């Protein structure tokens, strides 16, 4: 990322002087959680990674296409599993809480003339589809798209072992973006126990996993093969896809080909 503040993409760093008078085509909302990530990553890992990827993509969108998107401060309220919410200072946010937060953000942006929002979700426990359907009913002229940052690009071409939680992928990305926050010497091996019921392991049905029964160190996935180089390669692939998504949704033509009014500005 090169001087993102020059185009006012990162709301955690820029000020009103950077933003006023500019035309912004969309807003990006990183959304994570506050939860343990094995023994070596910070509680806000999901927020930090979603924001870092979003800021990289928004900065590239400006450099390469001269389209402005602003990245809002990340939301730290995630939905948690049993066992996980028993860990010290892990915060569980109910559907109603998340729905209220997202609704207030949409109402604020819509009042200001913006009509496009991308929720970049960094936490596997979050699910926004019903919220977005509700808000589409309330705000039919406001487009909300949801993208899971961890699912945009398959892991298999970048990592040796699949990451479910605080494993090789997330640790490598944190080594790339925030190496000062990674203490790999303290990492557990991320071993996890499957269900004893095969119908749940093969996903015939779903139930939330009890984190106390699944993992000793709260991780699910081995972080010990992580590296900043792997994180950089994976981040580049994810950002490539995000830049295309941002550009597609910022285009004057709508998602069904209709021409959208030029109302997105401050």
Largest sheet: 4 strands, parallel
What is the percent of helical residues?
Answer: 25-40%
Residue-averaged pLDDT, rounded? 94
Assess the beta-strand content as a share of residues. 5-15%
Pfam families: Creatininase
Organism: Alistipes hominis
Family: Belongs to the creatininase superfamily.
Keywords: Hydrolase, Metal-binding, Zinc
Kindly describe this structure.
The protein has a single domain (4-201, 209-250), classed as 3-Layer(aba) Sandwich (Rossmann fold). The chain is built from eight helices and four strands. The chain has helices spanning 16-19, 45-65, 95-111, 129-138, 168-177, 198-201, 211-214, 228-250, and strands at 26-31, 69-71, 116-121, 143-148. The protein has a four-stranded parallel β-sheet, with helices on both faces. Strand 1 (26-31), helix 2 (45-65) and strand 2 form a beta-alpha-beta unit. Helix 2 crosses helix 5, helix 2 (45-65) crosses helix 8 and helix 5 crosses helix 8 (228-250). Belongs to the creatininase superfamily. Keywords: Hydrolase, Metal-binding, Zinc. Its cofactor is Zn(2+).
List strands and helices in order, with pairings.
Layout: H1 16-19, E1 26-31, H2 45-65, E2 69-71, H3 95-111, E3 116-121, H4 129-138, E4 143-148, H5 168-177, H6 198-201, H7 211-214, H8 228-250
Parallel strand pairs: 1-2, 1-3, 3-4
Helix pairs in contact: 2-5, 2-8, 5-8
Cofactor: Zn(2+)
Pfam families: Creatininase
Keywords: Hydrolase, Metal-binding, Zinc
